[in-house]
Amino acid sequence: MKNTLNVLLSKLRMKQLQLLIALDDHKSLHKAAGVMSMTQSAASKALQELESMLDAPLFERSKSGMIPNQLGHCVIRYARLVATDLTALCQDVAEIRSGRGGRLAVGAIMGAIPECVVPALNQLHAGQPDLSIEVVEDTSARMLAQLDDGRLDLVVGRAAVAADPSKYQYRPLGDEPLSVVVGYCHPPLPRRDMTLRDLTDYRWVMYPSHMPLHALLEREMDLAGLGMPDNPISTASTFVTVALLQRSAELVSLLPSAIAGPFVRHKMLRVVPLRLKSPSQTFGIVTRKGGVLSPPAERFIALLRAQAQTKVPAKNDKTA
């Protein structure tokens, strides 16, 4: 291990890592060489030198082109991390020199955005008005992949969905309670508690099957002794969901309560008096274990944790 590290530190060139990324993207040495403005023989030599440093091949030749093997996938992932970090370094240096002051890329699950992410971002922006901020809203699994690639500084979501949660440091923040909702045009609902069986005549607006809230609704239906709704409308968009519910009294959906709240207050949605049996899902701050956070990321995490401590008793950090 030590010998390999010494060889890489003394001989590895950024051009070789860029070549690996190009090979992964194009599956062809000829195309990758063209992208890199290299001759094919020079590209072949650079790849051979890298494989010699690691003492193992990185690609297999197939009918579909050059396909990375298990070791190749591993090296390419770290090559992308290095390239992303260098890009971020150049951007940060340019912005700091121009007086604009750095950047922060945050991923967040939908339910954490209104009451958790937005207030902390507002505080951060007030203290660092020249900071460039990017917010990505997606599923935890997809955002963890972006975190792995270095495209996100941190994720406000769940680490437990990862294939290997131990890769991450996880600091719990709170819960994501859910509400069953209908459009405001829907006739007034009974004050008594309803059940999912009372909604069997409604058409559901549901999340796509790869999203966690789809699985949660499936579990709730199973606990109620019901099958999944027939002919649902599938969308991952909150805007589409609310627009559909507003236009029809025959539709029902499931939303994080923090997302539903503003629409209820503005008389766009109504909450169905229905208690779900599944416990609220928890979420927290997810970062790469052993990674170095930028000062804006450290500040943002401090704001998130201080904000959470004002709502619930402090919790110890843990790895998940």
From TrEMBL:
MF annotations from Gene Ontology: DNA binding; DNA-binding transcription factor activity
Highest taxon of source: Bacteria
Keywords: DNA-binding, Transcription, Transcription regulation
A cellular component annotation (GO) from this entry: cytosol
Pfam families xrefs: HTH_1 (PF00126), LysR_substrate (PF03466)
Residues in the signal sequence: none
InterPro entries attached to this UniProt entry: HTH-type_LysR_regulators (IPR050950), LysR_HTH_N (IPR000847), LysR_subst-bd (IPR005119), WH-like_DNA-bd_sf (IPR036388), WH_DNA-bd_sf (IPR036390)
Domain (HTH lysR-type) ranges: 12-69
Family: Belongs to the LysR transcriptional regulatory family.
Name of this protein: DNA-binding transcriptional regulator, LysR family
Origin species: Paraburkholderia susongensis
Lineage: Bacteria, Pseudomonadati, Pseudomonadota, Betaproteobacteria, Burkholderiales
